[in-house]
Specification:
Blueprint (H helix, E strand, L loop, with lengths): L2 E5 L14 E2 L2 E2 H12 L4 E5 L3 H9 L19 H11 L7 E5 L8 H10 L5 E7 L8 E3 L5 E3 L16 E11 H6 L8 E5 L11 H16 L2
Parallel strand pairs: 1-4, 1-5, 6-10
Antiparallel strand pairs: 2-3, 5-9, 6-9, 7-8
Helix pairs in contact: 1-4
C-alpha cells in the first residue's frame, strides 16, 4: 500500500485560489491528481485542504477528501511536514506505509519522477526532487537600495564558473517518506535524505503571476514536443 497526499490550502494571497485556478484547461490541482493516478503507484490519492471548494474540485478530479484540515495547519506559516503528519494520523496509516507529498502546483510533474522517488525510498529516510541553479550561486550579487551592486562572496570574484561546485535546490514538486517518518517531525533535509534529479526546464515554483506565466509557457513547449 502507498498513499499520495496533496496539500492544498485555500488561503493563497499572491495568486488567489491558485490551487484551483484553471491552468491549460483544468484546475491546477487536477494536473497533480492526474499524474498521481497515471503513475499506478498509489492505493489512495488524498487531498488535505481546509477549503470546501477545493475539496469539491479535488473530488471531481478523482481524489479523496476524507477530512478538512484544521485552521491552525492552513495559515501562511503552516509547514509541509506537520500538514502531512496530520494527514497520516487522520488516515491511520501503517508505520511503514510509503507516503508521497505531492504539491498541488506541480503541473510539470512526470509520472517517471514519482516512480524514481518511490524506488529510491528503500534506502532513504526522505526522497525529494531537486534541480540545479542555472548560474553558480558562489558568484551571486547583492543589489543595494541605491542600485549599486557587489559580490556576496568576494572570494569567488576571480573564479571561473566551470571551477565552482554545482549547486542544487528543492524543485518544490514532491517528497517521499514512510508514514512513521512523517509523524516523527524530522526535517526533510538531513541524514538519510536522497534526491531525484530533474531538468531545469521541468521545474517552476509558482508563487507569483510571473511564475504562473512562465509555467504556462514551459507547459506549452513541453506538450508541443510530446
Amino acid at each position: 500500500m502507498s498513499v499520495c497526499i496533496i496539500p492544498a490550502r485555500g488561503g493563497s494571497k499572491r495568486i488567489p485560489r491558485k490551487n484551483i485556478r484553471h491552468f491549460h484547461g483544468r484546475p491546477m490541482i487536477g494536473w497533480s491528481i492526474a499524474a498521481a493516478r497515471a503513475s499506478g503507484l498509489f492505493d489512495r490519492i488524498v487531498v488535505s485542504t481546509d477549503d470546501p471548494e477545493i475539496a469539491e474540485v479535488a473530488q471531481a478530479e478523482g481524489a479523496e477528501v476524507p477530512f478538512l484540515r484544521p485552521a491552525e495547519l492552513a495559515d501562511d506559516h503552516a509547514a509541509t511536514v506537520p500538514v502531512i503528519a496530520h494527514a497520516v494520523t487522520a488516515l491511520s496509516l501503517p508505520a511503514d506505509c510509503p507516503v508521497c507529498c505531492l504539491y498541488a502546483t506541480a503541473p510539470l510533474i512526470e509520472t517517471g519522477d514519482l516512480v524514481a522517488g518511490f524506488e529510491m525510498l528503500a534506502g532513504a529516510r526522505f526522497v525529494m526532487a531537486v534541480t540545479t541553479f542555472p548560474y553558480p550561486i558562489q558568484r551571486a550579487l547583492r543589489r543595494k537600495e541605491d542600485a549599486s551592486v557587489e559580490m556576496m562572496n568576494i572570494e569567488y570574484a576571480s573564479s571561473r564558473s566551470q571551477d565552482l561546485e554545482e549547486a542544487w535546490h528543492d524543485a518544490g514538486q514532491f517528497y517521499w517518506a514512510r508514514a512513521q517518518t512523517w509523524t516523527s517531525g524530522l526535517p526533510v533535509l538531513g541524514a538519510g535524505a536522497k534526491a531525484v534529479s530533474l531538468p531545469r526546464h521541468r521545474v517552476q515554483d509558482i508563487d507569483t503571476l510571473d511564475d504562473w506565466l512562465r509555467a504556462e509557457l514551459l507547459f506549452s513547449i513541453l506538450k508541443a514536443g510530446s
